[in-house]
Automatic annotation (TrEMBL):
It comes from Pseudozyma antarctica. GO terms for molecular function: hydrolase activity. This is Probable conserved hypothetical Ustilaginaceae-specific protein. Signal peptide: none annotated.
Amino acid sequence: MQQSRNALGPASLLLWVSLVLQLFAQQTLGSVVPVTEDLLGRQSGGPPVPNIPLCVPPLLTSPLTGKYPPSAVTTVQTGKNCNQYGDPPARILSNIESPDGLQDLLQICHGEIVQMTDNTGKPRAMCFYANPKSTKDKPLPLLVWLHPSLVSPSYSFPLTGIDLVRDTQSLNNEDASRLGFSYILPAGRNTEHQYPVPDNVGLGWDNWYRNLDRSSPALNADVSFVDKAISYAKAHVPVDSRRVFMSGWSNGAAMSELYAANTDGIAAAAVYSAPDPYRDSQDPCTQVPYPKFATPVRDVHNYCDLIGICTTGQYYYADLKKRYPALKQSLVVIDTLTAAIKGTDASASCDPVCQGACGVTQGLVAHLRWPATRNTDTFFAFLRSNPLPSSGTWGPP
């Protein structure tokens, strides 16, 4: 399998830029700028699909009028083909790979490109960095990082700053001498998404089909792939079995949360800007969250984010806390511009201007940046503090 050099190609980039310009005009002029039918059809190659609605009233007037967009939180199924796992498996689209994509991925991961197949027989690939300092006597942790939709790990992972500390960052709270970690960067598939344009199709993860039953022949193909990727890493480098961690960005964050909550042997997850993995605002087959394991998860959100992600993330956190009081959930809300921490857990709040399932300029800009200044004290600190117990499992929540 070859990773795409053009995963965020000219068409997708044009859509993003056009959306930013329209949102900027909305905020500046106080009006809704319509999206053209031509633009909507350009990426999908078919009939126009629902686009990101623009929040009304604009950012500057809402605090004055007290009128805010309706909350993006939804708990009602509207789909006609929902099943016990939520949505049907995502439809696979045409191949978006390029001949030199694997070389791009290799250059940013300092490791090897591993090719395999998932449980459907489809070819998959990942970047695997086996830290040479990891030994049988002193195995290092393994970090699994899932990229956002539309943007391959070749483009997104370098923005995080994680690779820069692969040999120096401690993820072990019991042995200060064990610095560094190995990591894997699995690549998603080109599928349909339950997101608005421009993210309705493209590279990503199917967190809407929530079949994580390993005994099922219809296991989610992305889950199957991540399972195999972790097994491969463990077979080719010493891995601290109590410290296999998940992380991810946006769609990859949602998949990381879903995977961590339903996979035995994952120590913890710390993710950025995750849509609710069970009840995203655009999901026609929402479900009540049902984590199988009490895996600690930290969800970092922008005070203002795209399509109400902070608001739905806060609802997800509160709902799990109410139904699973002992579950170690952590919510961190950061400043949209500076990434400074604004609130945590029960004291965290989201900007009501951005609570709707719509586009807001500053939320879009924030969503497209990884808060690297929070790596050490927010992402890595949470992972380091939450190794698996000595039993090797968190057990049910």
